[in-house]
Structures
1.
Amino acid sequence: MRDQSLPFLPPATAASANSGHRERLRDRARQSAFQGLPDYELLELFLFRSIPQRDVKPLAKALLAKFGSMGALLAAKEEDLRTVVATDQRGRLMRVGPEVALDLMALREIGLRVSGEAVMGRTVISSWTALLAYVRQRLAHEAREQFRVLYLDTKNQLIADELSNQGTVDQAPVYPREVIRRALELSAKAVILVHNHPSGDPSPSRADIDMTKQVVEAGKPLQIAVHDHLIVGREGVVSLRAKGLF
């Protein structure tokens, strides 16, 4: 016997209702060029293709409620994405499966590659604003601390962005000699150090300052400069060079 406590729509009616909602939302997106659409509706538009013939609004809202923002959602790991469940209009459970999780992670990777195009192969000084946007998008919502190194050529153009180490929620070990060794392998003449504070506060610690000075000293004999050390948090990006800390 059907559970009378759950809302019910005949299959054809349910499919028709979903189709009508999807077309109305698509029309609104086209007419407004996405302006005015809340985050959950933008996410709905993306999920339409991942989950056909289902009402995905509850899942879109559940994803944003779970992670708190679009940025945090797109930075989430697959195992965390797959913990999200919602209930549709017919009382059926909806889960983030492996395909949906992969689609969401692909969306983030597309965003990273687009933002990377604005800085890769360009003079860092002339694209500094784009560089700050790029590192913030990549690291601001990471749950664990990452230490990355941006390697620059003789013209101060970005030639590589590499993950040097990944650690816990508050520490990622850094080996200055490894940073300089890799710079030599890439024929880089300068580096920009970048890491995130998962706490959200990008204020530098004494350990951050000391480590920066160690990399500076390791690079001096080989004429490899450290242009800056950027610390990324949800509250912004801090430049140790701008603060005169090394």
2.
Amino acid sequence: MIRTKNLYQTFIIAIISSALLLGCKKEKNTDDTLAASNEVSFMVAEKSFSDDIEHITKSGLIDTNCSGEGFIASCVTVTDSGEGVYPRTIVLDYGDGCEGPGGNIRSGTILISLTNDMSQVGATRTVTFQDFALNNKQLVGSRITTRLENTANGEPQFARSIDMTISYIGTIERHFTENIVWTSGYDTEACGDNVFTITGSGYVIRPNGVVVNRTISVPLVRDFICGYTVSGVITIDAPNGIRIIDFGNGTCDDEATVLFNGNTTTIVLH
């Protein structure tokens, strides 16, 4: 059986890209500054708990990242209903406060429910949160990943739906659906050779009620050899205008360009 490795969270960078861009009017700047603070916080929070979730694999409970360092902190209490026995439930308990990589403090619990091994078509992984917070930012909601049939080229693919809210300087919601195709590295033990192609769309509701739509208009390519999204385009449709985020032509770098109101700006992804 081909070893199914970690399906990394791959779409977080889209949030920070849009969050860093502000409107040109003073009143728009005020709203967008608040939204930026929330959306960047959402990015940090999602990436943080995603690292723990995505490193639960079929071959072992706690895996390592591409540099060989364990992601899950020693202060996390992990309870597994039984590896290889499905349905399977895994609970990550951070208690009242657990410091993880980067000095981030998590608290509360994450519940991971698997109907089957994620190498099996139709298997689902549902992630929910109980009193969960990152650096006192409260997160609620669910993330559901479903194993789909392989593509016509034989590449593994997954569907994911994300319905999350974060409470920090108001509350921001994120609703998104995406399709993830594992184009390279699936059948190797190392994770640093993984490459994913992502399509999808969704929307964010900002604290002031403004709805911002996001569409991956050109498929994103997330390359773990490089460590960044190396190509693809996201179109962001907000009330104060449309932004086009372009991640490039495949060259490995930490930059993307943003087109807004006829002006192009370069942003640094990390």
3.
Amino acid sequence: MKIYTKKGDSGTTQLIGGTRVPKHHLRTEAYGTLDELTAMLGVLYDRLPDKKMKEEITRIQNHLFTLGTFVALDPVKAELKNGKPRLDIPPLKEDHIRWLEERIDAHQSELPPMAHFIIPGGYLPASWAHVCRTVARRAERRLTALHEREPLNPLYLAYINRLSDYLFVLARKLSSLSRAEERKWIP
């Protein structure tokens, strides 16, 4: 299989289901930002000091691939079976969000309470977690914009919102483990 098809040379891409849309379509922007976040998480993964954290990031990357696949579906033309997209991929569920919440709570339980806003920096892996958090927030903005026009499963929005919270807490945890001082914003 060749990596290039030349079909996108005119500035369009194909959704799952066959519809061609501009590469700047809201749906393309949304799943493209999820793809960017997945790649950024790969950079974070390469800098993590802990096997368990790497396993968490790998699990999240798999969740994001799933989410991106469902966002890339043409909501009208995708082949349906019993009213649901015909994919051999299980969709995101409440359990995925619950897992993120459990990880947030576990990491946060080991951190001192926050008294200030935090300025990213001070330890490279923590800084990368903050970069990933900001890309997650952008993905959330893209998903909510798409959701206004073409309603999505509300779990997608909840998952990406919780993910940015997870990444914030992970950044704090990484700073704490490295004994890096959190850089406080003092207005």
